[in-house]
Amino acid sequence: MASVTFSSVDKVFGKDVKAVNGLNLQVKDQEFMVLVGPSGCGKTTALRLLAGLEEASGGEIRIGDTLVNDVPPGERDIAMVFQNYALYPHMSVYENIAFGLQIRELRGWFWQIGHLGETRRIRLDIDRRVREVAAMLGIDPYLDRLPKQLSGGQRQRVALARAIVRKPKVFLMDEPLSNLDAQLRVQTRAELIRLHRRLGVTTIYVTHDQVEAMTMGQRIAILKDGVLLQCDTPETIYARPANQFVAGFIGSPSMNFFPATVRGSVLEASGLKLPLPKDHPAAKEGRAVTVGLRPEAIFDAALPSALKPTSDNTFEATVDVMEPLGHEYVAYLAAGSINMVATLDNATKLREGQTAKFVANLDELHVFDAGTGDAIR
Ligand SMILES: Nc1ncnc2c1ncn2[C@@H]1O[C@H](COP(=O)(O)OP(=O)(O)OP(=O)(O)O)[C@@H](O)[C@H]1O
Ligand SMILES: [Mg+2]
């Protein structure tokens, strides 16, 4: 097991596609790190650089203390699970799992007639490891089947077994759940987390799904256009996003944003005034900012579960659309010319077309620079 360190790593494709741009990231030994970001932000490229399937254009990559830029992929002791997990179709589940081990561990002995005893010992050891891992992932009843005789979720687990059985220093997983249906994804997500707890192997997990990132990552690294925007625990990223992009990307429904101007101790938007917290660094008369408020920080003022309405935190809005989700409503509100989304307790009596009072949790007000999008705090 080992830590992983990217130091100022660049990857340029062709003349000017900067797939990875000055990446600095340290993954701790035994950590479960999630790389998340929109399509094309460089997630797969970062994994491929670490696995040695791509050569870095600049910077240093380390596994443990070893600089691996020039170490061939086969010697990096990494196992990667790809999005399309490509099992060998003509091999049984057993053979799929055992194949890599046989190649690695028997290769040196194969032609040496004098070492039959040794090859037999290695074969028995491989057999024991394959059966152990198969049992751990619940695929032991299917060892004799071909991949086409399995469900998608079972095939997924065979691909995982193939990676785990090698006991690598680092696991790389590139959207390994994307081929599964919603229910199986949730189930496999939990299985992967349990597996990580049990094996404690340093893992870098790629997804574009922020829910997957939040639920699985001990820390999350958010990339955009090859640049790392923020790396922290899910809780910190949710509560203290470094910029507007991260704020909008993490959380569902997304954070509401609206332009405002600082007037004295008030954030003035068209049709809405919110107080700027005392001594806030954004307090500069006339400064243009973007205000961020999460849907879950807005309450129906009529409900006892709401925050206590005061003159500061209360505003009036009209309900455009109400989407019932059962445990709550997603409400689309219009406050003057500002549109926002609120998740409301399912006890709400509000219906579409009504105008009512809403309470905002001012402790969860975010302020961003209108130009750079950086959080001001
Ligand atoms: N072999 C290549 N040649 C040229 N450009 C490439 C190559 N591989 C990737 N790119 C480009 O590098 C950027 C990052 O690609 P990458 O595959 O790492 O994105 P990703 O974050 O994994 O996206 P997705 O979520 O869609 O899988 C993209 O703009 C992509 O077009
Ligand atoms: Mg990718």
UniProtKB/TrEMBL annotation:
Name of the protein in question: ABC transporter ATP-binding protein
Q: Which SMART domains match?
A: AAA
Q: Give the Gene3D superfamilies listed for this entry.
A: 2.40.50.100, Nucleic acid-binding proteins (2.40.50.140), P-loop containing nucleotide triphosphate hydrolases (3.40.50.300)
Q: Name one GO molecular function term.
A: ABC-type transporter activity
User: Which residue ranges does the record assign to the ABC transporter domain?
Assistant: 4-250
Per UniProt, the keywords (alphabetical) are: ATP-binding, Nucleotide-binding, Transport
What CDD domains has UniProt attached to this entry?
A: ABC_MalK_N
> What are the top taxonomic ranks of the organism?
Bacteria, Bacillati, Armatimonadota, Fimbriimonadia, Fimbriimonadales
GO biological process entries = carbohydrate transport
